[in-house]
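#lab-general

N.A. 3:47 PM
ok so I finally got the sequence cleaned up, no stray characters, all 251 residues accounted for. can someone with queue access submit it? mine expired

B.Y. 3:52 PM
send it over

N.A. 3:53 PM
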Amino acid sequence: MEPGEDLVVSATMFTTYRRCPDQALARLYGQYPQDTRGSFKGNLAHRVFARHLLVGEIEPAGFDLACKEEIGQGMNMKVGSVGLKPSTLSAVIAEVGELYDRFKRISHEGFVDAEVFVEVDVAPGVLMRGSVDAVFGDDRAGMRLIDWKTGALGRAHDQLAFYALLWVLAHGVLPAKVEAVSVSTGERYAEAPGPSEVQDVADTVAIMVGELRRAFAGQTRLERVAGGWCRWCPILSECDEGRSAAAVFAN
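B.Y. 4:20 PM
back already:
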């Protein structure tokens, strides 16, 4: 990787770049999508899922309290940024409860760990990191990395491929499988990554780092690609294609 600005390459940065390189560049300038009610609900649901896997099933009578404990441990600031009030927060918790009921019906056989944070220095000034929602498997069969989705699966390939690369860099072995599971719909998308696929992701990360560093140093822009993700783009106001796409996907 060519030298330049220090970069933290997260799964979000990588998937954002794959969708729209200029939106990824905006992150280097500190421009991030605003928190929404939907993102708040998704974050809370993920914390509840991890709590279930790590601590045990949450009884219905204690579900509201468990959710408020999770909010208090890292999401208080987001309550204000999203503009939630006690009445609307109760509605969000109820929706998370419906997702949790579906989550409990998913088999958790072979569970190893949840919210597994992985961080690797891959080159001078380049740190790759990610948090895998859940790890299943064993040394004989290999590890299975799972990413829980609270909505539709969407374009899951890029995120899963990034996790596979990160796992290899951290542990020296390929995961047996990487999966995205929609808790709300029951859909699954799975891949068994091979060396060539992981190498392709590594090459893409290297290209991304170079493009971002050059653009940041030269104060230039990168390619803009319009799509459904434009609705939450932090640079939407200055992108004609993005505004047109956001209007289409809002209907």
